[in-house]
């Protein structure tokens, strides 16, 4: 009882839970713990972050949490921090339209330096699409590329995790750049 499986995206899970399965609106949504980091540009491709965005769209305080793993051995560190952060979010709330994207280094809790609020960094990737051939000799494509590092941006999520800190990045659900929107209104269309 009360265990469900959804054949869909993480966003589908949030929508079905909120609109169909749950008897009441949840107080908070915790998406994850994701296997692997969602640092920098990853937020645009991440199902984990998208599920938190869906919660934010629905007006529910939401957190995406990922273990930035090298071997994925320290999920307890991420789970313990997620529990602590969930209590803080429930106590303090989040501004409307803001979600938190959290990345936990793959370290034992005693070796994590703490948690910091960080801005979104910029990851670099190698070959984005790799063509392969399956055992039946049919072509297929592996999309994602190999990470080749990240830009050294002070106080970014990438730098924080590299340096042994848990990064917490507040993200806006509404991606409109209001300054650019204002300047574009001067264009003669």
Characterization of this structure:
The protein is of the alpha/beta class and 189 residues long. Helices cover 29% and strands 26% of the residues. The protein contains five helices and nine strands. The protein has helices spanning 10-21, 47-57, 75-92, 157-162, 178-184; strands spanning 29-35, 62-68, 98-105, 115-117, 123-125, 129-133, 139-143, 147-150, 166-172. A five-stranded mixed beta sheet has the order 1-2-3-9-4, with helices on both faces. Strands 5-8 form a two-stranded antiparallel ribbon. Strands 6-7 form a two-stranded antiparallel sheet. α1 (10-21) runs parallel beside α2. It is globular, with a radius of gyration of 19 Å. The N and C termini lie far apart (58 Å). The relative contact order is 0.15.
Keywords for this entry:
single chain, 189 residues, five-stranded mixed sheet, 9 strands, globular
């Amino acid at each position: 009882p009360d265990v469900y499986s959804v054949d869909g995206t993480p966003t589908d899970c949030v929508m079905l839970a909120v609109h169909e399965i749950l008897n009441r609106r949840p107080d908070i949504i915790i998406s994850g713990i994701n296997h692997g980091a969602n640092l920098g540009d990853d937020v645009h491709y991440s199902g984990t972050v998208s599920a938190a965005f869906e919660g934010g769209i629905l007006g529910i305080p939401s957190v995406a949490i990922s273990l930035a793993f090298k071997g994925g051995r320290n999920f307890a560190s991420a789970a313990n921090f997620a529990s602590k952060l969930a209590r803080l979010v429930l106590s303090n709330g989040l501004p409307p339209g803001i979600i938190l994207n959290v990345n936990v280094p793959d370290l034992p809790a005693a070796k994590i330096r703490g948690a910091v609020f960080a801005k979104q960094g910029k990851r670099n990737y190698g070959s984005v699409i790799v063509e392969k051939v399956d055992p039946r000799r049919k072509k297929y494509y592996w999309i994602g590329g190999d990470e080749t590092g990240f830009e050294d941006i002070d106080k970014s999520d990438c730098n924080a995790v590299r340096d042994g800190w848990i990064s917490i990045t507040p993200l806006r659900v509404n991606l409109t750049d209001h300054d650019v929107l204002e300047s574009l209104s001067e264009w003669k269309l």
